[in-house]
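pipeline: protein-struct stage 2 | run 1193 | arginine--tRNA ligase
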Amino acid sequence: MTPVELSHTVLRAVRRAVDEGELSVTVPGRAVVTPPGPGGCGDYATNIALQLARPAGRPPLQVAEVLLPYLLAADAVTDVVVTGPGFLNISLRSGSPAVLVEEILRRGKRYGHADGPDAQPLVPLHAPHEVRAVVVMDAAARILRSQGAFVRTTCEAPVQPEWTDILGVRVDSYGPPATPGGLFLRPVPAPVDPLPLGRDAARWALLHPAPRDRPRLTDDHLVQRESNPLFRVRYAHARTRALSRNAADLGFTAEPGDVQDARALENALADHLRVLTQAASQRTPDRLARHLVTVADAALPLLPTVLPRGDEKPSAAHRARLALAEAAGAVLAGGLSLLGIDAPQHL
């Protein structure tokens, strides 16, 4: 279940409580669903009870208790815990790895994306006239839009043409923030001009570190060796694409199933939805960049086992490993795209 689907589940719980006469409120158009904060638990949390308390004329804790059984009735929900002043912490049923892989392959690069724009307020992002801030804002906007948000970006002054031509940034308008209360993104500035690294390496160098960390803009981001995280991510993706081509030549295709000794990769893929939600809600593309490294590092040991060796015939195990590898490749390609970085088919 994606965060957008869970938001709809929360709204259905509110609607059922209203229909049963347990709440007297207007069902809102949106329920905010985020990873649990400090003191929370489960997979996601929602403040819908706090949102409805005033119109319901009841304390948030009472509203939460009313909604709890309706949420527990949802098929994908395994537990709901009320914490703090009335936050509903929701645990979801984990599908089998094969089901997860099947869903990723069905959605492809758009796995984890909302099906369309959500009914939520405009998200205004603003950046100073500094290259790293503008690149971070551009990536944050891409991630937010993937989650169904309406985003408008502004920069204090027009960006240099090469920031657009080389780094691929897009800014909606210039000058003061168009909307009061927008988020001002101020990461530690780039110490030198990143443009000589080219688009992909420069964006990675600016996005991979946490906003509070000083980016390292050196040629290390261009070298094709294991010490370069960007190389590992792009290499892992390119290898998955090569495996698909090689498997087709051998006459077999992917089929999700049980894969032995792949728990780390399955866990990393299962965490992708949560990472996208966090990166969107906290406007932190670095979370996504580091997650892609985790996926790549977990995928690389699997890849040499995908194809049959010698006279070995393709088996169900080979098809399942190919499906898992292709799922990893889809997540890596989709994540790189949200960061504005190319995912090459060959490397």
